[in-house]
Amino acid sequence: MACDLDYHCLASDAAAFVGVHLVGCTNLPKMDVVGKSDPYVLMWFTDGDKQVGKRVEWKVKKKTLNPVWNETRLDFGLPQADLERTKPSLHLEVWDHDFGSKDDNISKMDIPYSDLPFGDCAEVKLVGKHCHKNSAIQFCVVKNHIEGCEKHGKVLQDVFFLKLIGSMNVPKIDKMSESDPFVVARLVKEMNKKDQPPLEGTSVVSWPVKNDCPCPVWNTCRSFTEASVACLTAMDAVVHLELWDSNVGKDEKIGSAFVRVTDLVKKDWPTSIKVECRKKQKEECTLQVQAVPCQPLRKTVFFIRHGESKWNKAQEDRDLKTMSTMTDHPLNEVGIQQAKTLQEKVAQCIREPSQYGENSSERLFIDATQAFCSPLTRAIETCLIGTAPVLAKLGKLTLLANAREKRNFGGKDSSGDVKGADILTKVKESLAEFLGEEDATKLTSVDIDLSEVQSRWWTDSAENGDEMESRISEFLNVLQFSPHRVIIVTGHSHFFREILGKYQHPSLTSQFPAQAEKLHHVVMENCGVVRVDFDFRSQLENSVVGLEPVFGSKMKG
Questions:
Q1: Which helix (H) or strand (E) holds 378?
Q2: Contact by Cβ (8 Å): 397, 353
Q3: The model's pTM
Q4: Alpha helices in 103-174, H assignment, sequence order
């Protein structure tokens, strides 16, 4: 049934909530017997002995006495009006994380409202029995989301972001199959010197495992604790990348590669660097990387759920045989018609835009400049039919492996069975069954980027919460670092529901509690379209700041 809650233009007044921008700490005491400290920070507001809002934690920075976060946290759940009315103190704690034993406290402080640094960051002396005279923390309180996001956004403009595009000719490490590569990277001081620690104040980053893949593609970006380009080029910093093979027991290192930050930032195209492999091979193994600038941090993304598939129909009819035996079901006749109906709505908006408001979401949809799609057949068919008028203008569609449906237990409909160009062959044959050979050929003639689906892009086992969280983070990373502001993504109900339910900004849950809670359970109707506004100036897990069904779409639940 259709959801009885109003989701029309569910947009939060994100400006109404307080945050804290934490720059970092300096001259912390050495707390570990071997090494330095592994600091993290806790903060919350207090009114007398009573906690106001939520407790917020900044993550552990390993082996450093001068940690840098440069991160704005906006999830205190404290409205600006309450801050000004109650004038609470800020309680902050700095801790050293110990692995396998109790964490050590470095400092605990209560800062009265009158002494809080608002707007501009200030240095506050840390107090504690282990602290030095010059131990300090740098932060400021931001009275609203916009102020905090702008501050964080300005920081991000100067950050060094590394995009890992992929790898070629990964050596076969496993005896029975191809390698399962993943990549780890750190910033270091010297070229071609192994076993160097990361530069102080920077973090080690990684890219996820690609199973049975000699030529993996990631196409996602990482930052090293928001280290600035200017700082890294001045110290002639080096990126040290390690290529690994994932194993059930112990992971095995394949090889290393080094590249100077200055060599990356002086050009705006990918660099191919040789991997010095531990085992010799005939073909040279390489990694393709690129330094990328911070992209527009606010994006409008239109999620389109696929039309009714043969699996959806089998589920409705309780046809267990079809549900359990077929893999990657195509659209059925109803689904084809649903996609055609969407196509007509889109075409009509292009022909007669005046029927919609000048600033309507429908008119923004037809002006999208990038289109992504799940590689599952039903999603591709829906995209090629339903968005055909927009694709004709764009001229290109990109398949994203991470946009596939969540794999549940027994859900063979969420597993693939073909890869590369065979995906398009399967789609074309399925479309021809309902539309005829000529129309199927025309629809599949659009330029489709298959780079992410050349190797096995699906899993045959159920995905747990951590696996889904990792995959969604990679998917959102692609959106965040896209140079395009308006994007179309065709995909699946459970995948979209995970994002809409778990990645809401706190202001959504505060201002629209009933609707926000319902997003954990409702699903989009087949061929439904929902506008989702993302603000990547805040944390990834709080990036959904608005939602609006368009073209008359309904949320069901």
A1: helix 377-386
A2: no
A3: 0.80
A4: 145-157
